Amino acid sequence: MTDIEKLREIIHNSHRIVFFGGAGVSTESGIPDFRSADGLYHQQYDYPPEEILSHTFFVRNPEEFYRFYRNKMLCLTAKPNKAHLTLAKWEREGILRSVVTQNIDGLHQTAGSQRVHELHGSVLRNHCMKCGKFYGVEKIAESEGVPQCECGGIIKPDVVLYEEALPEDTVMQAVEDIRSADTLIVAGTSLTVYPAASYVRCFGGDHMILINRDATPYDHMADLVIHDKVGEVLSQV
Predict the structure, then answer these.
(1) What phi and psi, each to the nearest 5 degrees, are found at residue 23?
(2) CA distances (Å), 179 to each of 90, 117, 172, in order?
(3) Contact 114, 120 (CB under 8 A)
(4) Domain ranges in the chain?
(5) 187 among annotated binding-site residues
(6) pTM to 2 decimals?
(7) Phi and psi at residue 40, to the nearest 5°
(8) Do the annotations mark residue 165 as ligand-binding?
(9) N vs C: which end of the chain shows fewer Cβ within 10 Å?
């Protein structure tokens, strides 16, 4: 039996699947992975990405933050790929409980997924730090310098920066779904970004499946490991 046939059999016999995904889910849509050979961490800039994308840097140098953010973090022409579309289909069919994602691009919702736990926020949501008014991503993309609210406050993306805590409600819902799942599919993630990566340890169901281009520290815990592109694998199921 091939790996795809094993995966197909597990999916067929599952009723409460939870999908835990990382950057590798969106790379097939043209969104760069932070740590891949051509990702953000290997591109030249005035400061290291992890410094620019920190809370301290945002507060001290918002203009430089937004120069990087618009150029590197907003991929508004990206479209959902086979992985996003397959997961949305599984949700409509009633076998997928939810998607837990480390990505901030909103492509799962664009594909049609309804129950999505965004651990690191979303570039599509932005709020004024002074009055709390909501702004869509267009406000950020079309403005220059530091985007400002009508009240004069600075607009901040609803993206979890380095030094910031993950949204507590989202984490609680994600962990609860992982705990109650009968099958957990972990895909497109190196499982090295904490605390998010540690949430897979909450799983106590029947089958854990790992789909990733490279090996991860959690491969030994999985019932099935497939080293391939996420969209290509899921679309065959």
Answers:
(1) -60, -30
(2) 19, 14, 11
(3) no
(4) 3-30+78-120+160-235
(5) no
(6) 0.92
(7) -65, -30
(8) no
(9) N
CA atoms within 13 A on the CB side of 80: 17
Measure the CA–CA gap between 22 and 187, rounded to whole angstroms: 7
pLDDT at 193 exceeding the cut of 80: no
* Sequence letter at residue 58: F
Helices (H), ranges, the chain:
3-12, 49-52, 55-60, 62-68, 82-93, 107-111, 137-142, 168-180, 230-235
Does the annotation place 75 within a ligand binding site? no
- Is 151 annotated for ligand binding? yes
Calpha distance 119→11 (Å, rounded): 25
Catalytic annotation on 227? no
Instruction: Summarize pLDDT for 142-173 with one digit per residue, the tens.
Output: 999 999 999 999 999 999 999 999 999 999 99
Residues making up the chain, counted from first to last? 237
Per-residue pLDDT tens over the stretch 25-66: 999 999 976 555 445 555 666 788 889 999 999 999 999 999
Catalytic residue chosen out of the listed positions 108, 120, 207, 220: 120
| Residue 190 annotated in ligand binding | yes
The answer to whether the annotation marks 102 as part of a ligand binding site is yes
- Fold of the domain built from segment(s) 3-30+78-120+160-235: Rossmann fold (3.40.50)
